[in-house]
């Protein structure tokens, strides 16, 4: 009797284990299929954008509107982020470098960090939050209220009218924002170094410019352009494929910011490896 | 008297979303100059049918002929040309929030014809006037208008291009009875003036009686009855009877679960 019960228990736990394993494998399969489906759809979406890029006429008024929205109106948030990042960088560098009497390198560290890394990444992440979310919410709302269908009915290609201007504005405006962020960030470091840490103004500026190469700035601007593409692409893609209702708009917005931010960080590593200067 | 031509011929149109079949080998002829009302319960695929005809939703199978020419699954320039025959009033009006009413009205016209701002504005104001709205409304944004006014602006946008075929998707949904009647009269007037073929989707029987020359009832993804409006009350079809009288008991089962 007890032997049979033991065998039954052993049999049932083995079945449970196998069921659990099957569910696990099925989940991996589902996720893989979802990943492949999304990648495929994204590829087709990008292909469609490039097709519209080579087929005039272009919606210039929309492009101008997006240049203002993505470029000009993002300046305060990007500028403030850069200013305080530059200031903190100067303070933290001082804490570290003063331990081995290398305070003179602070200006170089601030300018190289800002131009090569912090400028593009911080601006990219801030713009992903501001613009990625706004693009996704706007396009998703248009999707659920049938405005995108209405555009098609009114002889207007929705990708050309809604997506292309945003992507072009993202690719061109992010480098401009990053260039301004670099200058403001360096200025933040300069303020802290000269007013709080007692550096001479002339020495700080000389040190800043002494080791800065054009490549440092250019590599940051290349990154910025790539980030601009990622942010606007993810905003447009998630908005365009939003499901019905308010929840669909919410999910599209969240996905745009999360996917945009993660892709920026991944792309940042890839570009840094490619542009790495030994 | 000349026999009216078939304007749109639908044959065996099928559309499924996952495992759910919405349209099941649906066939229907829409005659030139007709005012056809398609009725049916919520979720029976009325809007999907219109969107399948327009290519906004891709049908899985079937044939869609416009003036005798096959138009199923058109792409590129031929699809753009196909769409110029149509205009549509969407369920929620689908006006563009970021531009003014007059810009909304002439949006489609400006994509196909070169015109100055002044010319476009003049056409827009004239069309807005024809749907009973004041000139001042032209310079407002859609969000500043009531639901009924938005619907009229959407009608103005639908008729300004003088299309051959107009689709109206639930034109009176969410409107009070008086405004609903105004919209119904407007649909009849506009279709008459343009000589357009119109297809209206509604589950409002009063609207159907005012707008329709012919009625088609959709259920289970198929057209289960079609005929002149005068015959609707004596159709002898249990589904139609139940639907027009709003009876809870009958062959149409209420879907409690999705």
Query: Which range does the strand content of chain B fall in?
Result: 15-25%
The CATH class name of the largest domain in chain B reads Alpha Beta
Order of helices and strands of chain A: HHHHHHHHH
Radius of gyration of chain B: 19 Å
Mean pLDDT over the residues of chain B: 89
Nearest-angstrom radius of gyration of chain A? 25 Å
Taken as a percent bin, the fraction of beta residues of chain A is under 5%
Could you say which structural class the secondary elements and strand pairing of chain A correspond to?
Answer: mainly alpha
The largest sheet of chain A is: none
| CATH superfamily descriptor of the largest domain in chain B | P-loop containing nucleotide triphosphate hydrolases
Tell me which oligomeric state these chains represent.
heterodimer
Show unreliable segments of chain B.
none
Using the alpha-carbon principal axes, give the shape of chain A. Answer: globular
CATH architecture of the largest domain in chain B: 3-Layer(aba) Sandwich
Rounded to the nearest angstrom, the distance between the terminal CA atoms of chain B is 48 Å
| Total of helices of chain B | 9
Helical element count of chain A?
9
Largest sheet of chain B: 6 strands, mixed
